[in-house]
Design goal:
Length: 108
DNA sequence: GGATTGACGTGTC
DNA sequence: AGACACGCCAATC
């Protein structure tokens, strides 16, 4: 059926490969939403209720900052998961963000 | 159905 | 470099 915008977001986020990250804006753009990056984040709000669990820790803002970490059950969990996947996080910000960036528009 | 809301993005001061 | 302002657009109240 007509999946809501954030239903599409959920699916796309689940497609993010391990050890890679992407930005809300990139997701929105790949869904044809253009500048509605906020919708992506808004969708992720429901991500906690979705199943299977959505790797929301792989989604950050354009600066590579872990903006949504406070929305996790445990704020430190987001950084932990990223580091486990080989992503270096310092001061709530992804290092070498460009290297780990996964662009849905390109990869898909 | 208008107003409010956002896990954003980019530009300015 | 840090803080502030405006724009975007769909979902929810």
């Amino acid at each position: 059926m007509e999946q809501s915008f954030y239903d599409q977001v959920f699916e796309l986020v689940r497609l993010i490969p391990k050890g890679r990250v992407t930005s809300y804006g990139a997701i929105a753009k790949s869904l044809g939403a253009g500048g509605s990056a906020r919708m992506v984040g808004y969708a992720m709000s429901n991500a906690s209720l979705a199943y299977p669990a959505i790797p929301a820790h792989r989604v950050v803002n354009s600066t590579g900052l872990l903006t949504g970490k406070f929305h996790f059950a445990e704020p430190n969990l987001m950084q932990e998961l990223l580091e486990q996947e080989g992503v270096v996080v310092k001061n709530d910000k992804i290092q070498n963000f460009k290297q780990h960036f996964w662009d849905p528009l390109v990869e898909l």
